[in-house]
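user: can you give me the structure for this one chain? tokens are fine.
assistant: on it. calling the predictor now.
[tool input]
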Amino acid sequence: MIDDDHSLLDLVTGYQPPAVIAAAQRIGLFEVLPGVPRSAEDLAREISADPSNLAALLDALTSLGLVDATTEGYSATSYAARRLGRDGEMALVVAKEAVFAEAWTRLDRVVLEGRPAMEPWRSQLETDPERALAFLEALDVLARIGGPPLHELGALAPGRRVLDVGGGLGAYSRILDAAGSEVTLVDLPPVAAWAADRLASTGVSVVAVDLFEHPSCGVAPASKDAALVSHLLHDLPRERGIDLLRRVRNTLVSEGRVVVNDFAADSGPGAFGALFDVMMRVETGGAAHSRATLEAMLGEAGFAGVEPLPYEDPLTLYVGTRP
């Protein structure tokens, strides 16, 4: 509970550290900060920046723990050099969040008008494929560093015929393939092309399909032992999510299992779930459904024995069976 001005100020100024990091990433600062300290003036010449303002940015990054400052100059911390520098994977995540931060400035319009601030995903794939690919690459990074160990679930591995529904670039498909499952990833044609390129060295099959234009997600009915629906339902309103789950159900053999991996609106810690719900409304027009709603959606789609899997918040996983 917020009951004093200083606590509120902490909240309303929370945009500042992310803005500092995003600005540093956009101007290529982490790419020119080596292990050897360099002066702000030297760095400013290399990236064509104002020396005084760059020094202020470097001091802020130092206070945030991403830059080391000595009498000899500035250098990236070992973590920042590895994860935010040239080819650093977290640079993709920073860029993604910077795009979303701009969309959040239009939250008032989202609330008043009832529509997302960002253009539909299909349109993004057509109008800005480079940015769409970068977004998917960031999601791939997040899945690898924070996703649940799905390869340990008996419903998905080993030896299962698994459908990865809307699997993006294949972070989970790759893991399940390595665990000995026969994996098929299905996604929209542009995404499927990118995934096929990245999964060429694996045994994963890739199918290009609009999930809502095929009764069984682009594969033969009753051809899969299991299906993974990961971070997809939150992009969809409730009824459209149920529609998708029914199509997923059609892909499964009798007693086949579906695993839903998502974040719930009532998951923690703290305000995580509630803020994630708002984020979906800003970005996709979907919603982070509550745990009870996710269970009900699976039931209405025809799955039985729906139960949560024992993961800590914010991970929200359910498994259901096709009777």
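assistant: here you go. The mean pLDDT is 97. The first strand starts at residue 67 and ends at 70.
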